[in-house]
Amino acid sequence: MFDFGRFHLIHFRFVAPLVLLAIISGVVFSQGAGDKALSPNQPSPAEMAEKAGVKLPRLPWHMADIWWEFASETKGFERLDVEVTIDRDIPDAFNLYVAPVGIARINNMDFYGGLQTNINGWQAKESRKRVHPGKGAIFSRWSADKSTPIGLGHVRMEEGGLCESAGYEGEFCSVRRPFTWTSGTYTYSIQKGKKETIEGKAHTWFDCVVTSQKDGAKTPIGSLRFEGNDFSFWARHAAFVEIYSTEKIPQSGIPRCVVTFGYPRINGKGPELKSAFASYNPKGRAASPQCATARAEADKVVIEIGPITNREVAREPLGLKIPSP
Q1: Which of 141, 156, 285, 318 could form a disulfide with 296, with the two C-beta atoms 3.0–4.6 Å apart?
Q2: Is position 324 within any domain?
Q3: Is residue 77 a part of any domain in this protein?
């Protein structure tokens, strides 16, 4: 595993004017993981793959999928909160998707969402022109069977937000909103909102909000409508980090970075954990280059993304230590 916060001994031959350097023989210099000066840049995926002697699969690349399996489902679902920390600024020259909600399920309906360096979508429900405003967050859901189209009547956009309804990854609808997230810690939240009745059937809106832990600023992303009134949250949860493709950037680089996911909180509490593991997708339809490793730190999962290697690890258990509720 690579230690991205450590710099080995550097031998300096001169000291540039106006720059004060501490030069101590035999000392290792290090930077904290949260240092904003850390660069995300590394060689292109093609260069790293050639060096590792591997072939690049097609995009998108799920570099690491994290799965938590709980002791039971949660009835009376009201709210989901997942904390995520990104250790350095990732410019929108990359297509990086950090998804605290890789997939979640309520009443057999799936939703997902997170932070992206390049969101895209339609500026109005009447538009089909795709725009690419840069960084932001997204919240999406599939239709119940993933094959029946789900229209934009199920989305409620925030001012300046985007939307989409399509079927290229199963029938889904989505809200997105630009905001310039940086390095730091954010809480991605889905919370139960207003109810309404359509043709005699109950429906409920769920609202997505991203909260910055630095200053407490809350950014509403938009809302999605789900069929039903009372909901149960399934007995698992997933998160992931992904490199994806857009019209703006068809072939993205892989940024060097560290992403930390906190333990999911459902209705304000951490559910009892049954097991947790990381999947790296070395083969198959969802194949990814092997450039990420995950480890447990108490109740958090730390994912380090770096150079492509030639390993083929399908999954690893994560020995999380969850405090008693």
Answers
A1: 318
A2: no
A3: yes
